[in-house]
Amino acid sequence: MIYGIGDLHFDYSKEKTMDIFGDNWIEHEEKIIEVWKEKVNEEDLVLIPGDISWALKLEDAYFDLKRIDDLPGKKAFIKGNHDYWWQSIKKMNDLELKSLFFIQNNAYHYKDIGIGGTRGWSSRDCDFFDEKDEKIFKRELLRLENSLSCIDGDCKFKIAMIHYPPFDMNLKPNEFVEVMKEFNIDLCIYGHLHSEGHKYVVEGEIDGIDFQCIASDYLKFELKSLYEE
């Protein structure tokens, strides 16, 4: 079984609160962990498309990552816009957290299912989009292409994880979706959207790809079943 939930926003230090987005965020970590333990078995996989920990440094994020590592199942991550602690794959692997896999210019394989992804970026038609954003946007497109190209060609099901919604402000697919189409992606999961941002959620099949938003508050802090053999 493959589950998914994004935007954990864990904070081991308890210095960062998420209830500015609503009372539903009160004790949200406890809600997620409780459901996780109820649903997930050790042989299952949980996909987390970014915004994992509020920590700024890797040594501080370790405490949140260790909590996730101790939960049942295997876990695969991509970087979110708040994951400032994210470092090189080598540095993160050196933490020796046994059940975690970090995706950046690589891919994860679970049985005969391939998973790739990248953070993504804000839509080009945002009012604030500038030259710096364009540089990041192009880099993220390349990272998505690099990652998806690492998925074995004989995988029977392919999943793309992206933190930012791969849609423009008119809720139409953007260039990230074009890359996904090139690699015959079956399912795309994303997060990032909270509270009033849920009005920008786009789900369902578009151009042969099933899109699902799995931001934690959108799921009411319950892991979503994404794939079952």
Task: Please give the structural blueprint.
Layout: E1 2-4, H1 28-39, E2 45-49, H2 58-69, E3 74-78, H3 89-93, E4 100-102, E5 108-110, E6 113-118, H4 131-149, E7 157-162, H5 175-182, E8 187-190, E9 204-206, E10 209-213, E11 224-227
Parallel strand pairs: 1-2, 2-3, 3-4, 6-7, 7-8, 8-10
Antiparallel strand pairs: 1-11, 5-6, 9-10
Helix pairs in contact: 4-5
GO molecular function: 3',5'-cyclic-nucleotide phosphodiesterase activity
Pfam family, one: Metallophos
InterPro entries: Calcineurin-like_PHP, Metallo-depent_PP-like, Metallophosphoesterase_sf, Pesterase_CT488
Structure characterization notes:
This protein is α/β, with parallel strands linked by helices. It has one domain (2-227): 4-Layer Sandwich (Purple Acid Phosphatase, chain A, domain 2). The protein contains five helices and eleven strands. It has helices spanning 28-39, 58-69, 89-93, 131-149, 175-182, and strands at residues 2-4, 45-49, 74-78, 100-102, 108-110, 113-118, 157-162, 187-190, 204-206, 209-213, 224-227. The chain has a six-stranded mixed β-sheet, with helices on one face. It has a five-stranded mixed β-sheet with strand order 4-3-2-1-11. The longest helix is centred in the middle third of the chain and has 19 residues, at 131-149.
The rough form would be described as: globular
Judged by helices, strands and strand pairing, the structural class is alpha/beta
Q: What's the total count of β strands?
A: 11
Q: Please name the fourth-level CATH homologous superfamily.
A: Metallo-dependent phosphatases
Helix content: 10-25%
Looking at the overall shape, the CATH architecture is 4-Layer Sandwich
Number of DSSP helical runs = 5
Strands in their spatial order, largest beta sheet? 5-6-7-8-10-9
Run of helices and strands: EHEHEHEEEHEHEEEE
CATH class: Alpha Beta
The radius of gyration is: 16 Å
Task: Report the β-strand fraction as a percent range.
Answer: 15-25%
Number of domains: 1
Question: End-to-end span in angstroms?
Answer: 7 Å
